[in-house]
Each structure stands twice: as structure tokens, then as C-alpha cells.
Specification:
This protein is an alpha/beta fold and 175 residues long. It has one domain: Glutaredoxin, CATH 3.40.30. Strands 2-1-5-4-3-6-7 form a seven-stranded mixed beta sheet, covered by helices on one side. It is globular.
């Protein structure tokens, strides 16, 4: 009987704890890339070992494309992004690939699946090893920062079809 009461007390306290936890408001991370706000001052490492920052890119339209090897959406949009980066380079639009991957794994993948614009590596934008600074919920995510350093576009999902690419180019041409 004592054993039964002890189990019942422990089980009841677990239920109360679970209920209290479910009633707490969830903390939703705020993205530093909220449309209409100033882009954050962030510094990244390039695949060839250089360090670059968003502050040093001011004056250019910047397209940040966050992805990971193995992301289906990334593979769907890779060629489209390559074509757009080539087409818009002369208009002052700088495409930058930002990936969680790095080292030899990334270099091997890029040999097989070339990205024709700058690649920044080892950026944990999905909160796997630390606080979720970016607040992203999917890959790929594409951000556009205008010449004045303000976020103008934030999209979760691939830009893969010719129609999506045309809309995106029109958006960039207006910046």
C-alpha cells in the first residue's frame, strides 16, 4: 500500500509539472534579419580562410543564401542561384552562400556541385551548437540586404523555378 501511494504521488507531481510547462509561453527567437530593419554586424569565414563582415559589404545589394549539404531545397535552387549571381554581378548585386558545412567535406561537395559565388563556411544558423542567433526554421533561407544595409527580403524555401527566379530578379533590380 505504501509503495502504491508513493508511485501515485510521484506520478501526480509529474503531471503537475508537465501541465505547468505546457502553460509557459514559448520563447520564439527573433531573427536579426527582420525585413525593414538594419542588418546585423556579423563576421564570417570564407572557404579560403579570409574573414569578411556584412559591414564591409555596405554599398552593395547582398543576397545571403543560407543552406546545408543535403538540403533538398538547396539542390533544387543551386543552378538558379548560380545563374542569377552571374547575371546580376555587373549590377552591384553580391551573392554569398552561407553553409553550416566546412573543411574537406565542403570542398569535395563544391567540386562536384559548383557554387559560382562566395562561400562562407561553418556558420551554425540552425542552432545545433549554440544559441539560435538567426531564428531560421528551414533551409535554404535567402536574405536580401540593400545598399544602405537594411534587410529588404527574407524567404524560407528554395527559389528554384523560372517564375520564382524572374520575380526575385525583378525585386533585386528595384533595390
Amino acid at each position: 500500500m505504501v509503495k502504491f501511494l508513493l508511485v501515485l504521488v510521484v506520478w501526480t507531481s509529474t503531471l503537475s509539472f508537465s501541465s505547468a510547462q505546457e502553460q509557459l509561453p514559448r520563447r520564439v527567437p527573433t531573427s536579426p534579419f527582420t525585413v525593414g530593419t538594419d542588418a546585423p554586424s556579423l563576421t564570417f569565414n570564407t572557404i579560403d580562410g579570409r574573414t569578411i563582415s556584412l559591414d564591409h559589404m555596405k554599398g552593395e545589394v547582398i543576397v545571403l543564401n543560407f543552406w546545408n549539404i543535403g538540403s533538398k531545397g538547396r539542390e533544387m535552387e543551386r543552378e538558379t542561384m548560380n545563374k542569377m549571381s552571374e547575371r546580376l554581378k555587373s549590377k552591384g548585386v553580391r551573392f554569398v552562400a552561407i553553409t553550416m558545412n566546412g573543411g574537406e567535406q565542403l570542398k569535395t561537395w563544391l567540386t562536384k556541385y559548383p557554387v559560382k559565388y562566395e562561400v562562407l563556411e561553418k556558420v551554425d544558423f540552425m542552432n545545433y551548437t549554440g544559441p539560435n542567433l538567426f531564428g531560421f526554421s528551414c533551409m535554404p533561407t535567402t536574405i536580401v540586404i540593400d545598399r544602405d544595409g537594411r534587410v529588404r527580403y527574407n524567404r524560407c524555401g528554395a527559389i528554384a523555378t523560372p517564375e520564382e527566379a524572374a520575380q526575385f530578379i525583378a525585386l533585386l533590380s528595384a533595390k
